[in-house]
């Protein structure tokens, strides 16, 4: 690490302290002996979403939170629950090793995670994701949901 005081290339790490999203390091220059602090943070590659029309766009966590929040409006789900759900989905995407996923895959991930959290929010999200056009679409989805849940 280059010393900000003398420009020397070598410094020793005196103390390392992890914070929420960074690592703080106290360093001492081997040449001039002055101390300075550096911060390291993880830089992850962005996730791309391929939309239904074939257009690619960067994954937007706020957009996903907003769409789940709309589905969860006036249900028992809190903003903390929704943020936890989004965090789980992001972790699942990162663990898959894919940097590009389709909006269909993302919607399926939301549905599979939302089904365990709240039935009403699940049906609301499914209606938008599945582009329901008739009442029969809702009935069919509810029957399918009940069958998989064993109710």
What is the overall shape?
Answer: elongated
How many strands, which pairing sense, and closed or not: the largest β-sheet?
A: 3 strands, antiparallel
Spans of 5+ residues with little confidence (pLDDT < 50)? none
β content, as a range?
15-25%
**What Rg, in angstroms, do the CA atoms define?**
23 Å
Lateral strand order in the biggest sheet? 1-2-3
Q: Approximately how much helix is present in the residues?
A: 40-55%
SSE succession: EEEEEHHEHHH
Distance N to C terminus: 61 Å
Count every beta strand, where a strand is a DSSP E run of 2 or more residues.
Answer: 6
| Broad structural category | alpha+beta
Count of the separate structural domains: 2
What order do the helices and strands come in, and which of them pair?
Layout lengths: L10 E8 L3 E8 L5 E7 L6 E3 L5 E3 L2 H11 L7 H18 L3 E3 H12 L4 H11 L5 H15 L2
Parallel strand pairs: 4-6
Antiparallel strand pairs: 1-2, 2-3, 4-5
What does this structure look like?
- The chain has helices at residues 61-71, 79-96, 103-114, 119-129, 135-149, and strands at residues 11-18, 22-29, 35-41, 48-50, 56-58, 100-102.
- A hairpin with a 5-residue loop joins strand 4 and strand 5 (56-58).
- The protein is α+β, with helices and mostly antiparallel strands.
- The strands form two sheets. A three-stranded antiparallel sheet has the order 1-2-3, with no helix packed on it. A three-stranded mixed sheet has the order 5-4-6.
């Amino acid at each position: 690490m280059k010393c900000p005081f003398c420009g020397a290339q070598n410094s020793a790490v005196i103390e390392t302290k992890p914070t929420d999203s960074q690592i703080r390091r106290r360093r001492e220059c081997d040449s001039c002996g002055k101390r300075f602090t550096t911060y390291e943070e993880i830089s992850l590659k962005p996730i791309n979403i391929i939309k239904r029309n074939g257009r690619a766009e960067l994954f937007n966590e706020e957009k996903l939170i907003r769409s789940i929040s709309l589905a969860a409006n006036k249900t028992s789900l809190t903003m903390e629950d929704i943020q936890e759900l989004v965090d789980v989905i992001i972790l699942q995407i990162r663990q898959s090793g894919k940097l590009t996923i389709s909006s269909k895959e993302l919607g399926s991930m939301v549905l599979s995670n939302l089904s365990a959290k709240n039935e009403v929010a699940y049906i609301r999200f499914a209606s938008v994701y599945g582009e329901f056009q008739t009442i029969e679409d809702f009935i069919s989805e509810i029957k399918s949901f009940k069958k998989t849940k064993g109710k």
